[in-house]
Design brief:
The chain is α/β, with parallel strands linked by helices. Helix 5 packs across helix 7. The protein has twelve helices and eight strands. The mean pLDDT is about 95. It has a single domain, classed as TIM Barrel (Alpha-Beta Barrel), CATH 3.20.20.70. Strand 1, helix 1 and strand 2 form a beta-alpha-beta unit. The protein binds 2-phosphoglycolic acid. The site of 2-phosphoglycolic acid has 13 residues, from strand 8.
C-alpha cells in the first residue's frame, strides 16, 4: 500500500453528545498512530461538537444536498457542513440510494456541489447480492461509478476517495474474499486511471467497506488496491474502532 491507510468511521444515525467521549478517545489514540489516517463521519448534529473535541482525526458528513441553498426543509447543504467543521462528505452510500431513492445522477450533482463548496468527497459504490451471484458485480459497479463520479479538473486524488461497499456485506458480518475485493478494486483503479489520468487516477484512494472488524482488518486491507476502510458498526466505540486502526498500522509499508 503506497499511501497511509485511511480508516473512516461512519456513525450513520447513531450518536448523541454522550458519544463525544468515544470520539475523544479515538482522537487521542490516533495521535500516536501516525502511520494511519483516521476520520469520523458523525451525524449532522454532532459534526461541530466532534470537530471541537478532536485535534488529529478528520471530521466529515454522511450526506449533503445537491443545491447550494434554498427552500429545502430539513435538508443540509455542503456549505453548512463545511461551516460546522466537516472537511469531507460521504456521498452515494447504499443506504441513501436505497432508502432515499438517490440516483447516480443525483449523487453526481451532490458531488459537484460538495467539491464546489470546498469539501473532499468519499463516493460509495457497490453491488447487491443478486448482481454478485449473477456474475455482474464488476460491470455494475464500474457503470455506477461512471454515472456517479463528477468531473474533476484538479488533482482528483486530493479531493476524491472511492469506497467499494458490497450491499450484502454491510452490517451482515459477511465479507467478500480477498481475491474478489482485489479484483473489484483493480477494476475501479483502471476506471479511475481512464477518467483522471495515470498519475491522479492512480493515486485516488479506494476504500473497502462492509463488516470490517478488528479481526478481519489485516486480511481485507491486504487485498490488492485497498487503501483503507469505511467502517460502520465497528466505529461506534473507541475500543473496536481503534482495534481496526491498530491492525491497519500493522500493515507492511
Ligand atoms: P458496516 O457498515 O461496517 O456496519 O458493515 C459499513 C458502511 O455501511 O459504511
Amino acid at each position: 500500500m503506497a499511501e497511509r491507510p485511511y480508516i473512516v468511521g461512519n456513525w450513520k444515525m447513531n450518536g448523541t453528545r454522550s458519544m463525544l467521549s468515544e470520539a475523544r478517545a479515538i482522537d487521542r489514540a490516533s495521535q500516536r498512530l501516525m502511520k494511519v489516517e483516521v476520520a469520523l463521519a458523525p451525524p449532522f448534529t454532532l459534526i461541530h461538537a466532534v470537530h471541537k473535541e478532536v485535534q488529529q482525526i478528520g471530521v466529515g458528513a454522511q450526506d449533503c444536498h445537491h443545491m447550494e441553498d434554498g427552500a429545502f426543509t430539513g435538508d443540509v447543504s455542503a456549505a453548512m457542513v463545511l461551516d460546522a467543521g466537516a472537511k469531507f462528505v460521504i456521498l452515494g452510500h447504499s443506504e441513501r440510494r436505497q432508502n432515499h431513492g438517490e440516483t447516480d445522477a443525483l449523487v453526481k450533482a451532490k458531488a459537484e456541489t460538495a467539491l464546489g463548496a470546498g469539501l473532499r468527497i468519499i463516493l460509495c459504490c457497490g453491488e447487491s447480492e443478486e448482481l454478485r451471484d449473477a456474475g455482474n458485480a464488476e460491470n455494475f459497479v464500474t457503470s455506477q461509478l461512471k454515472a456517479s463520479l463528477p468531473e474533476i479538473a484538479a488533482n482528483a486524488a486530493e479531493v476524491l476517495t472511492i469506497a467499494y461497499e458490497p450491499i450484502w456485506a454491510i452490517g451482515t458480518g459477511r465479507t467478500p474474499t480477498a481475491e474478489d475485493i482485489g479484483s473489484m478494486h483493480r477494476a475501479i483503479r483502471s476506471l479511475a486511471v481512464d477518467l483522471f489520468g495515470e498519475e491522479s487516477g492512480g493515486a485516488v484512494r479506494i476504500l473497502y467497506g462492509g463488516s470490517v472488524k478488528p479481526d478481519n482488518t489485516l486480511e481485507l486491507l491486504a487485498a490488492d488496491e485497498v487503501g483503507g476502510a469505511l467502517v460502520g458498526g465497528a466505529s461506534l466505540t473507541a475500543e473496536s474502532f481503534l482495534g481496526i486502526v491498530l491492525a491497519a498500522a500493522d500493515l507492511p509499508d
